[in-house]
Write a structure and sequence with these properties.
mainly alpha; Globin-like; elongated
């Protein structure tokens, strides 16, 4: 990502200005009725001014959330840089001009002014303007930079779902989740066979057993990474139909994994109690019978258990 680091501008604000920006943004959001309502307010105006953004803003609340996360991290330069990279990557293939960025800036300031009134301090205006100008400044450098953004081979941008998921997980602060690797592996069989409910049930059962070894996990973390990665890989084609189809897919998988996720722990405890009551000779005989029965019912398993 060194090339991206070079292309992106930096944001340098003092502590007081950062606090003014964060407080002003939070107040604006509350007075608009929350993140969802705030996103609708701003991006409905933007869609009216720039009809070409219709396909880019399928979920206004998600875009608002990205901006909020960026503003919340202003006091942490490294995190700001990561979030700027993430936003820039998502819009790399979009047809955005400096004039478009200026329109977005004006709408954003108009909405904030309507809700903040006298609370819209010079520091707030300067700080928020700096953030918007990061992207505007990059656009003004001309076709050479635009070409650099478009040339994926020069930027070493992930081109597969698994690679993009790992990239997004790191950016979103969940890169240390070891169980993500098992989720990515499971996706390879879940996605092609989502229409076969029996096959999906088997795969979810296996996934449930695999995830049980990690203890407490939050599947919603992977859901966020999954959607961010899919949108990044299909920036110009992604639509509400894609959103709904993948939401349907995830609902099925999550439900099947969640509804039985406590069973492995419970059954493991019961099994340990049962085995502990057997003497050594009986236990050895029991193990042999288990594997004899297993191999008889599933011959191909012998290829993996030798």
């Amino acid at each position: 990502m060194e090339e991206i680091d070079r292309l992106l501008s930096t944001i340098e604000l003092d502590e007081y200005t950062i606090k003014e920006v964060q407080n002003g943004w939070e107040t604006t959001e509350k007075r608009l009725g929350g993140p969802k309502a705030a996103g609708e307010e701003v991006f409905t105006k933007l869609r009216n001014e720039l009809p070409k953004t219709q396909g880019m803003l399928t979920r206004s609340s998600t875009v608002w959330h990205l901006l909020s996360e960026l503003l919340q991290s202003l006091g942490q330069p490294q995190l700001v840089q990561k979030r700027l990279e993430y936003i820039a990557l998502r819009h790399m293939n979009a047809d955005i001009t400096t004039a478009d960025v200026e329109i977005f800036r004006n709408i954003l300031f108009e909405v904030c002014a309507s809700k903040l009134g006298g609370l819209m301090t010079p520091e707030f205006q300067f700080g928020l303007g700096q953030i918007v100008d990061v992207e505007k400044g990059e656009q003004e450098q001309g076709d050479e930079k635009h070409g650099a953004w478009q040339d994926n081979s020069n930027l070493n941008i992930p081109k597969t779902f698994a690679a993009m998921a790992r990239f997004n997980a790191a950016v979103m602060g969940t890169g240390d989740r070891m169980w993500f690797a098992d989720m990515l592996y499971a996706m390879e069989s879940l996605v092609p066979y989502i229409g076969n409910i029996d096959r999906v049930q088997e795969d979810c059962d296996v996934l449930m057993l695999t995830l049980a070894k990690y203890g407490q996990i939050n599947l919603k973390e992977f859901r966020s990474v999954m959607f961010a990665s899919l949108r990044s890989l299909l920036p110009t084609k992604w639509s509400n139909d894609h959103e709904n189809a993948w939401a349907w897919f995830w609902t099925i998988v999550e439900k099947k994994v969640e509804e039985n996720k406590k069973l492995p722990v419970y059954n493991h405890q019961c099994l340990r109690t049962f085995l502990a009551r057997l003497d050594e000779e009986t236990l050895a005989d029991f193990k042999l019978k288990v594997f004899d029965s297993f191999f008889a019912n599933c011959e191909e398993s012998q290829l993996y258990l030798r």
